[in-house]
Hints:
The chain contains 17 helices and 32 strands. Helix 13 (about 630-640) packs parallel to helix 15 (about 655-670).
Amino acid sequence: WQVLAIYMVLAASPSEQQALKQACPSCDASQLCNCSSMGLEFIPPGLTGKITVLNLTHNRIKRIQAQDLQQAVNLRALLLQSNEISSIDEDSFQSLEKLELLDLSNNSLAHLSPVWFGHLFSLQHLHLQGNSYRDLGQSSPFSRLRNLSSLHLGNPQFSVIRQGNFEGIEFLHKLWIDGSNLSQYEQGSLKSIKQINHMIINLRNSNIFSEIVRDLVHSVTWLEVAEIKLPVEKKSLVQNSTRPFRIQKITFKEAYFTDQTISRAIVSLKEITSLKELEAINCVLEGKGIWNTTEIARSRPSFVETITIIKVIIQNFHLFFDLKGMESQIKQLKRLTIASSNVFMVPCQLARHFSSLLYLDFHDNLLVNKRLDETICEHSWPSLQTLNLSQNSLKSLELTAKYVSRLPKLNNLDISLNNFGEIPDACEWPKLLKYLNLSSTQIPKVTSCIPGTLEVLDVSGNNLKEFGLQLPFLKELYLTRNQLKTLPGAAPIPNLVSLSMRRNKLNGFSKEEFEGAQVGAVHLSLMECHRSLVVSLICILVFLLILLLVAVGYKYHVVWYLRMTWAWLRAKRKPKRAPPKDVCYDAFVSYSEKDSEWVENTMVRELEQACPPFRLCLHKRDFVPGKWIVDNIIDSIEKSHKTLFVLSEHFVRSEWCKYELDFSHFRLFDENNDAAILILLEPIQSKAIPKRFCKLRKIMNTKTYLEWPAGQQQQQMFWENLKGALKS
């Protein structure tokens, strides 16, 4: 019995390996086993210790059994997302001590068991989102996961977080929770995690938001909240929270604010003294900017240095107030971004109070030159060094330069993607300006308007035909997407280190153009270096391709098939029945040449010598000489009252019979048309008929057909039935 058992184990192994190879061919002799989107309903057998990555995503697996992964002891990554898994045996992952990534997201797990993860000592990334569990149980499912770095959990049904649910986790690089329908949060539940670098949570319940923030201010570095409708919070956000605070950045995505809630939020967030950065993306502000500036000014000073606002929708932005009274709250700001938010101006009085601001980004807004005069008034933005005004509605380069010259410390200016259209001969710029981006501004040329203090200049995408400026300090020059035919001279830009000339009309250049200057590195495409050679190679390849197509077309009669397709399309546009005056025959006979003896000597004689005689159309006798055979087939079918198919094994193997079916089945084989008569000359299975003629097979299964009998007496009845069908 022992020998028999050993033999059975050894015999089963090759069969399992064969089953694995058949279910998932990529698993053969590979450490990466990719079985994604293969319609699998179970984990394939035969998985061995050599596999380190197993991808079973997008299948129909419903259950993970204990033996499924028992031999895959060296797995590092197990991807099971987007299946239908609703059941996992408790010791399914027991042998996966080296597993680092487990993805069970988007399945049908109604609960989570701590036993599943008990032996996953090396696990770093666990994805459980998109299932159907409502909570994490009464204790922590993750208590043994000491090396866990990222955790994704939650779903639209997830509604409860309890104390103890995260016990055992001390550090997370990333925690993502889908709590869009979270209704109950026990205070202190997240407090057990000592440090979280980045936490993302979808949260609609505004009351829970405050409780979560109180638990996280000491542990999270970056908190990202989505879908929240901020509450009017009266209690302190840091009440009973452990100091020192760790939270440095808060991001709101797709959040909803009102004048009242944003006023209260500003006051509350100022209590988090560690907070340095605020971000709002794709948010909605319902209000006119009537904020409680008195309460805001009376509260403690803000420590926030960076504010980023992207794609914020203000319902009535044209009625928005000038935020008078907020001056005291912006003095410590160092970086401000308001992009894609319909900003058309900043009041001068407010702009003058941004005394510490170093970086200002207003790209993709509605700024025009007239409003820019107000936005950048005298003594505004006194410390500003970097300004981005790209993709606005500025029209005058001269006025734009004049207004920004009021910024004494400005050294980096981006005014790209504005439609200036023209450039003056002289402009007034900030004296310290070193970086200027004028790309895609429709300027037709470069003039002395460009400041001589520049170290970096980008004039890409302007259709420039020449560049001859004297820029003694310039180190980087970007001339991409212009119409330049020659390189800019080396003498006027002696300190140039980097030059970009892509997508111009440069045909070549000589050593003299560099006037002896040594080039460190050149990045030129093959087309730019050897244009003639590349064009010649392309012409040769095109010629060879045409030659190949002609040869293939000749070998496989492509021209003939194209003519046949054109004829078929013309036939399809014709009416399904010809006018009675055009009908010349009682039936067109479609048959194989190998059945011609029976057709011509038996059937034709019986029908054409009947009283009255039937007029039959045969391709041998009645096709018009010199006319293309496909046109003959179509015309004969149209000029016949019926179409008579003599079916046999020879018929379904005949190419011409297939064509005759092709040109007739779309007008004959419909539910209410009896123009087709089928004769079975010999027994034939409907499945032997080509699959593309599905309606013919359907007729054979649903409608009566005539079968040629062997006996003499039955043959007389056959002829009577056939004549009756032709007369109907």
